[in-house]
């Protein structure tokens, strides 16, 4: 990968640095945070991407098996809400995870049309492996912070989430209920 020297890069015409603007912008872009989030996300998911490649899976597979594992009995409809994707987008990924034995699907007890999803032992093992990789990165990042640092990071991340959508999985996460209490 090529090294990029940001100090020597030229800015597009008309894009003067914030400190040289003549009129103070009351809400200038937070380039520092925007770019740090970009790189943090890239590397956070990159750890899992390398493992997923060996299985012929991508990030969509990771998200599906993660939420199915964490919230056993999640309905297909709720999974669509969590992921904010279309049925068509979910269909291919879910079919592959079902066909390869990472997830099983069962009819609902009260409504037989409902499709409830559960991770198999194989799916749970994959989610655990990926979560451990990502947890190592999180632990390294939190290591040098003061004790309140992890709490501040969590508060910041919760504040970044749109709350307009009453997603029951998100509400469970935000309110600290057990993942098993969602179903």
How does this model look, in words?
With 183 residues, this protein is mostly helical. The protein has a domain at 29-144: Winged helix-like DNA-binding domain superfamily/Winged helix DNA-binding domain (Arc Repressor Mutant, subunit A, Orthogonal Bundle), CATH 1.10.10.10. 55% of the residues lie in helices and 7% in strands. The chain has seven helices and three strands. A three-stranded antiparallel beta sheet has the order 1-3-2. A hairpin with a 7-residue loop joins strand 2 and strand 3. The radius of gyration is 21 Å and the shape is globular. The model is unreliable at 178-183 (pLDDT under 50). Pfam families: MarR_2. Residues 1-24 are annotated as: Disordered. GO terms for molecular function: DNA binding; DNA-binding transcription factor activity. Residues 30-162 form the HTH marR-type domain. This is MarR family transcriptional regulator.
SSE topology:
Layout: H1 31-55, H2 59-70, E1 74-75, H3 76-83, H4 87-99, E2 103-107, E3 115-119, H5 121-142, H6 148-160, H7 168-175
Antiparallel strand pairs: 1-3, 2-3
Helix pairs in contact: 1-5, 2-4, 2-5
What does the main sheet amount to?
3 strands, antiparallel
Shape: globular
Q: What would the average pLDDT be, to the nearest integer?
A: 84
Low-pLDDT residue intervals, each spanning 5 or more residues: 178-183
Provide the gyration radius in Å. 21 Å
Please state roughly what percent of the residues sit in beta strands, choosing from under 5%, 5-15%, 15-25%, 25-35%, 35-45% or over 45%. Answer: 5-15%
* CATH architecture tag of the domain at 29-144: Orthogonal Bundle
Q: Strands of the biggest beta sheet: in what spatial order?
A: 1-3-2
Give the N-to-C terminal Cα separation. Answer: 45 Å
Please name the CATH topology of the domain at 29-144: Arc Repressor Mutant, subunit A
Which structural class do you get from the secondary structure elements? Answer: mainly alpha
Tally of individual helices: 7
Order of helices and strands: HHEHHEEHHH
Relative helix content: 55-70%
Pfam family, one: MarR_2
Region (Disordered): 1-24
GO biological process, one term: response to stress
GO molecular function: DNA binding; DNA-binding transcription factor activity
